[in-house]
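dude i think i finally got it to work??
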Amino acid sequence: ERFEVSLRTIYRDIKSLTNAGVPIYGDPGSGYSLVKDYRIPPVLFTREEALSFVAAEKLMFQYLDKQLAINFSSALSKMKSVLRTSEKEILAVADKSVILKGNYNNFNESVPEALSILLTSISAKQIINIKYRKKDSEANEERRLEPVGLFRQDSFWYFMAYCHLRNDYRQFRLDRIDEIRLTNENFTRIHKDLKHFLNQKKKHPTIKVIIQVEKSLSHYLQWERDYYGFISEKELENVVEMEFACRNEGTYFLRWFASFGDHATIIEPKELKANFHSFLKEQLEHLTKQ
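look at this
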């Protein structure tokens, strides 16, 4: 009655556990019990599953802040402890063979526990206090926040939160946090999930940009082009034609285009081509003054 199941269901489940090797015994009038000191055997991992630990640990240290990476490593060590000796030896060899190069760890090193505190705040629904630096500002200001969710975009971690100072939802970047503290105060309201707020983000007006790039160079642009509004590409005879939805001002796009402009052509719009000529002229004038 307590669990709202039938007696038949209980008998069926007891039989399933017995068939699985779980030592269960029954006493008339007192019910069923497990054999004393019985422990569920540890989960066994396949070699392929065990090898995935190596990549996972390397990635976590690259993409998480210091404290959360330490927490993950500790949890992973406990999982590794149930591996067979032969699997541990394979992991030791594989660990030396995987290196992630590059700096993906864009955090404020003076606040190594920011991600951990944010996750605790979100799961426990507790308010945080932070000191935050706005873009192009050295001074920080105090904010009292109710975090909704975390997301990573363009090599940086962000979080969405209800801000008590602004009485509205705002987006914050983790590397601009100078101080963070978890309070004992509970959230003051019920929040919608993160996906709702990301779908509501302002859409900036864009212009259609088409460029043609030499085939020998085009594949080198794959790692960066998404940041500049890449939509599609098609191969022509000697070039690859790419289409972008570029923000109206186009400044960031032109700076990027200048890095390979001697191997590419702006097809449209004509205004962007003229802006590119002006941009290069300004750069040249600046260099001649140095």
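The longest helix spans residues 270-289.
im so relieved honestly
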